[in-house]
Amino acid sequence: MKALVTGATGFVGAAVARAVAEAGVEVRVLARPDSDLRNLDGLKVEQAHGDLRDRDSLRRALAGCQQLYHIAAHYALWAPNPAVFYEVNVTGTQNLMEAAREVGVERIVYTSTIGAVGLPAGGGAGTEETPVSLAQMAGDYKRSKYLAEQEVLRQTRAGLPVVIVNPSAPVGLRDIKPTPTGQIIVDYMKGRMWAYIDTGMNLIDVDDVAIGHLRAMERGRVGERYILGNRNLTLREVFAVLGQLTGIRPPRVKLPWQGIVPLAYLNLWAANHLTRRAPRIPLEGVRMAKYKMHYDCSKALRELSLPQTPVETALEKAVRWFRDHGYA
After folding, report:
1. How many domains, in total, are found in the chain?
2. Which listed residue, of 127, 190, 270, 305, carries a Cα 20 to 30 Å from 26's Cα?
């Protein structure tokens, strides 16, 4: 059995590639020639050079593969040219699904995002069935991933054997970029978090997310979505755990969400017109912080036996990895 894993040089993709290889499946990874390969250190995989925007390279990469884990995406809260989100996340996904159909891939797991899952209008935890629309997507990343998921569902209705997973906020080892959630941890470790917003998230160990992908491939129902998450926490609760792990006192100042918006707009203007670097206070992150991103993960627990490593353990692994690799 051979599986192609896209995005294997990234945080979630590297964890998935390792889990798939440990399960005895031969792994081929899709990577651009200039990709940072540090996350593949020590992992025996075959490399296929290609790009989601190059259909011929995708067909070559998929040749001889029975399984496909599509994890690659342009994951950021800002880009100098927003078109890259749609070129990679939407058109790239369409290219890959069509290539998989052409070469006869037997089974596909597509990695969407928790941002494409709805939240109840009156508050509470979202589920795979909570209604959501494109109009509710804040920012180009979430909009592009929502559109990509809709494309995958369309292809699934046309007969492509795809299972969709929606990871919440993974934390743990090898967050080399780091991800927006990882950046929160790094900033905390550097003493930059002097206040907090009344928001929330669902955290999960990235290695549990990887096992969730493997179980979705093995037993997930085609055409279904599965939230891969663990524990719902407020940001204040996350900081409390980080305080215990790092010895850095959690912030006590609570800021209103509305008070951060002007700063985010100012940061965005500076990023677009002056620095051409990602803003320190991303507007899309602030917009998402308006809501408690809390979710019900019982479907994945029930149907996929999704592991639930304590989030304290996952955060400890992240803190240790960032410290050992000089991030903070």
Report:
1. 1
2. 305
